[in-house]
């Protein structure tokens, strides 16, 4: 069942709430394990006593989170510093930069 955003806005206004429809084409919610992608969303923003609330409805698609670091970068850090793969991966995730990860591993 689709709710008419204009009707919601009218009711909210009568109750003293500010409501706005946001013309979004896609909404992405990032979690630790995966991303939730909402296609063709209907997005409403409501402001009540200064607090912003968003209502989102649409077709949800789950996308698994990609690795933030690649194997070649980890191998390079291991080769240059002699740290374990786990340590190299941790350093790369912390710094986001190969050169910084190598520098930190050598400290």
Coarse shape = elongated
The quaternary state of the protein chains shown equals single chain
- Can you tell me the CATH superfamily of the largest domain? Nascent polypeptide-associated complex domain
Q: What is the CATH top level name of the largest domain?
A: Mainly Beta
Q: Separation of termini?
A: 60 Å
Q: Helix proportion of residues, in percent? A: 25-40%
Q: Estimate what percentage of residues fall within beta strands.
A: 35-45%
The CATH architecture of the largest domain is Single Sheet
What characterizes the major β-sheet? Answer: 4 strands, antiparallel
Record field, number of beta strands? 4
Folded structure, characterized:
The chain is an alpha+beta fold and 107 residues long. It has two domains: 5-64, Nascent polypeptide-associated complex domain (Ubiquitin Ligase Nedd4, Chain: W, Single Sheet); 71-106. Helix content is 38%, strand content 36%. The chain has helices at residues 5-14, 71-81, 85-95, 98-106, and strands spanning 18-22, 26-30, 34-48, 51-64. Strands 1, 2, 3 and 4 form a four-stranded antiparallel beta sheet that branches. A hairpin with a 2-residue loop joins strand 3 (34-48) and strand 4 (51-64). The radius of gyration is 23 Å and the shape is elongated.
């Amino acid at each position: 069942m689709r709710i008419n955003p204009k009707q919601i806005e009218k009711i909210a206004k009568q109750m003293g709430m500010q409501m706005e429809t946001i013309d979004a084409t896609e909404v992405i919610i990032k979690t630790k394990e995966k991303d939730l992608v909402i296609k063709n969303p209907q997005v409403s923003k409501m402001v009540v006593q200064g607090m912003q609330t968003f209502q989102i409805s649409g077709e949800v698609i789950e996308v698994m989170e990609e690795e933030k670091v690649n194997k070649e970068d980890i191998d390079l850090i291991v080769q240059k510093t002699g740290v374990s793969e786990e340590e190299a991966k941790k350093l790369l995730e912390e710094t986001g930069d190969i050169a910084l990860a190598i520098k930190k591993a050598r400290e």
